[in-house]
Design a protein that fits this description.
It is a single chain. With 711 residues, the chain is of the alpha+beta class. It has six domains: 195 residues, Multidrug efflux transporter AcrB transmembrane domain (Multidrug efflux transporter AcrB transmembrane fold, Up-down Bundle), CATH 1.20.1640; 91 residues, Multidrug efflux transporter AcrB pore domain (Alpha-Beta Plaits, 2-Layer Sandwich), CATH 3.30.70.1430; 86 residues, Multidrug efflux transporter AcrB pore domain like (Alpha-Beta Plaits, 2-Layer Sandwich), CATH 3.30.70; 76 residues, Multidrug efflux transporter AcrB TolC docking domain, DN and DC subdomains (2-Layer Sandwich); 46 residues; 106 residues, Multidrug efflux transporter AcrB pore domain (Alpha-Beta Plaits), CATH 3.30.70.1430. 50% of the residues lie in helices and 18% in strands. The chain is built from 20 helices and 21 strands.
Length: 711
């Protein structure tokens, strides 16, 4: 292996080509890397959703949730399995260990769910299995509203214009429409007329199933012509539905228009999306896993400009949120740090070497190692993020060592009078194993991060691999390109420049000071062990006493507001509460940029009709005097005192937190629901009285009002 340096010196073209190949692979890999803020630390999550229209929570729990849970629970690698059963809907969330592949986990869940389907009610919808990838969170949210169009018309605009043109952006997984209202035929029945005709809603449903059909009717074959036969039985207009025959009573046909009327309306009117209190629809962009989110957002806004030029004048478009802004800011700051660190390293090298020739060699070698690290990132499936760029920053100080050590030894051989080629070969040969040993030592420090488990291991895995990869590349370049450049650039017996002569007295004095200090310390060398023990103890004390958290809270000007009304509250009640909540926020927070709310969102643990979700966006931090934390504390007090519902304010976590739940969650288990019902009030009372918690709630409710019909 030591002949590698000799070969590079004797064949400079080969050494140059090897370094050029490293640079080319790194540059090409750079353009294929995804861009995100942090590495994915969210565990694989698979969700099983089942709808059973008309069933209450108890029926959903016993007939749908429990059979599915029993079937899914035996899959290997499950970390947690939680379920929510509410009226008409069952949601089972399966969280797997970090090491489990999401695709394999989803396939296992699908297999188990398909086995359990025969145990479900026949009129229940088929279960839907969905994957929650780490990149499945929205990156751009657009608000679309109009002062002349209703939500039905806005939904058509969002579907036919925005979705059609934005979903073809490279890297986009899906364009979703939030707050959409789809057209449907709504049938309104008069209870008194139903009773007069001795009819029930079930009779209406049976008539629809019987009459509103389009049956396959075959074809008619002739000697010359063949015709396909189509039975036109679908009802499409309100008039056709009003003319629908329900029953015949003594020769008299009772039509739907006799007991009610049909009208074209929204399929679901029990949820609404608002921006600052104004109803709207939202257009949301979901990226593909590993895609370049910055490139997606850039192309999205380019297309949005074209879309806005062709939109009707009454339609307004605004940006609800754009998470790529924070990714761009974070990556830009780290990139600036890379260039600053590189400039400082070059300045320090020149200050101590005091010769442009010797400084030029590390300047050439350092970028090769850093650019080559991008190829390692691509092969390993990593992305450009804050931690990988931080690894590049730290690698600058590590990769320069190998080049300087090799360069210094070759330069020393030249000063001893050896010919340039011989000095390069001998100098590199003497230092070869020292460079390899130091590089392996650094790699052995960072590579064990690969074997760390949990969130911390997943978070810093890319960091450790990038540093170790950069060190390996730098050692290779230092043993191939550096000796070759030294023999070509350095010259034996060159005169010292003026800067060297001016600074030489200072470095001689500094060397003498170090020499005398070292000699004095060696006389009391036992003090080294005392300092080591004292430092270790101090480090331990500081470690155990300092607060610990995964990542500090960042002021991004964003907060989440979640409201839950008493069980049994209607959609209209919740919508009225949301309007009051928006008014309080707009009145008390002058730093507010926008507040997007969803009344009765229909997703998550709090997705029932008596819940609401809000997303508060503040103006830029430079334009306000108060911090995000101060505003969140103020809103917690204001909204906590607002009567009608329980409301809490949460700040999004910097890393992870895809589930969007409360920061601290406890799991209470008991043998029966009755035992849980006894324990929960005491738990809630204790949690609300604890000074650490500002809000506490449970997702299991026992006070849902219901009307029981005994047959």
């Amino acid at each position: 292996m030591s002949r590698l340096s000799s070969l590079s010196i004797r064949r400079p073209v080969l050494a140059s080509v090897m370094s050029i190949v490293i640079v080319l692979f790194g540059i090409i890999s750079f353009f294929y890397l995804g861009v995100r803020e942090y590495p994915s630390v969210d565990p694989p999550i698979v969700t099983v959703s089942t709808s059973y229209v008309g069933a209450n929570a108890d029926v959903i729990e016993s007939q749908i949730t429990e059979p599915l849970e029993e079937s899914v629970n035996g899959i290997a690698g499950i970390r947690t399995l939680t379920s929510v059963s509410r009226d008409g809907q069952s949601t089972i969330t399966v969280e797997f260990d970090l090491e489990i592949d999401l695709e394999a986990a989803a396939n296992d869940v699908r297999d188990r769910v398909s086995r359990a389907q025969r145990n479900l009610p026949p009129d229940a919808d088929l279960p839907t299995v969905t994957k929650a990838d780490a990149d499945s969170s929205p990156i751009v949210f657009l608000n679309v509203n109009s002062d002349r169009r209703n939500l039905l018309e806005l939904t058509q605009v969002a579907e036919n214009i925005f979705k059609e043109q934005l979903q073809t952006i490279p890297g986009v997984s899906e364009i979703r429409i939030w707050g959409a209202r789809q057209y449907s035929m709504r049938l309104w029945m008069d209870p008194l007329k139903l009773a007069a005709y001795r009819l029930t809603p079930l009779d209406i449903q049976q008539a629809l199933d019987r009459e509103n059909v389009e049956l396959p009717s075959g074809r008619i074959e002739g000697m010359v012509t063949e015709l396909s036969v189509r039975t036109m039985g679908r009802l499409t207009t309100p008039e056709e539905f009003d003319d629908l025959i329900i029953v015949e009573d003594q020769g008299r046909k009772i039509r739907f228009g006799d007991i009610g009327y049909a009208e074209l309306g929204a399929q679901n009117q029990r949820t609404v999306l608002k921006r600052n209190g104004i109803p709207m629809v939202g257009v949301v962009a979901i990226p593909l896993p590993g895609s370049n989110q910055l490139a997606i957002a850039e192309e999205l806004f380019v297309r949005l400009d074209r879309i806005e030029r062709d939109l009707p004048e009454d339609i307004n478009v605004a940006v609800g949120f754009n998470t790529t802004e924070y990714i761009q800011q974070s990556v830009n700051e780290v990139q600036q740090t890379v260039f600053i660190a590189l400039a400082l390293v070059i300045a320090v090298i020149f200050l101590f070497l005091r010769d442009w020739r010797t400084t030029l060699i590390p300047i050439i070698v350092i970028p090769i190692a850093l650019i080559g690290a991008f190829f390692i990132m691509y092969v390993a499936g990593f992305s450009i993020n804050v931690l990988t760029m931080l690894a590049i920053v730290l690698a600058i100080g590590l990769v320069v060592d190998d080049a300087i050590v090799v360069l210094e030894n070759i330069y020393a051989k030249m000063e001893q009078g050896l010919p340039t080629i011989e000095a390069g070969i001998l100098g590199a040969k003497e230092i070869f194993f020292a460079v390899v040993a130091t590089s392996l030592a650094l790699v052995s420090v960072f590579m064990p991060i690969l074997f760390l488990g949990g969130t911390t291991g997943r978070l810093f895995r890319e960091f450790g691999v990038v540093i170790a990869g950069a060190v390996i590349i730098s050692s290779f370049v230092a043993l191939t390109l550096t000796p070759m450049l030294a023999t070509k650039i350095l010259s034996k017996g060159a005169e010292k420049n003026r800067f060297y002569e001016m600074t030489e007295p200072f470095f001689v004095w500094l060397n003498n000071i170090y020499k005398s200090s070292l000699e004095s310390f060696m006389k009391v060398r036992w003090m080294a062990f005392v300092i080591l023990i004292f430092s270790s103890g101090l480090i331990y004390l500081l470690f155990v006493n300092l607060p610990q958290e995964l990542a500090p809270m960042e002021d991004r000007g964003q907060m989440r507001v979640v409201a839950t009304a008493p069980e049994g509250a209607s959609f209209e009640y919740m919508d009225n509460y949301v309007d009051r909540m928006i008014a309080e926020v707009r009145e008390n927070v002058p730093e507010l940029f926008a507040m997007n709310t969803v009344t009765s969102p229909g997703f998550g643990a709090a997705g029932s009709v008596n819940s609401a979700f809000g997303f508060v966006t503040l103006v830029d931090q430079r334009e306000r005097d108060r911090s995000q934390q101060e505003i969140a504390d103020q809103l917690t007090g204001i909204l906590g005192n607002l009567s009608g519902a329980q409301t809490f304010v949460a700040q999004p976590q910097s890393i992870g937190g895809r589930g969007g739940g409360l920061p601290v969650q406890y799991v209470l288990q008991a043998q029966t629901l009755e035992q849980l019902e006894e324990v929960l009030p005491d738990f809630l009372r204790a949690a609300n009285q604890h000074p650490t918690f500002s809000f506490a709630d449970v997702n299991l409710k026992f006070n849902q009002p219901e009307l029981r019909v005994e047959i």
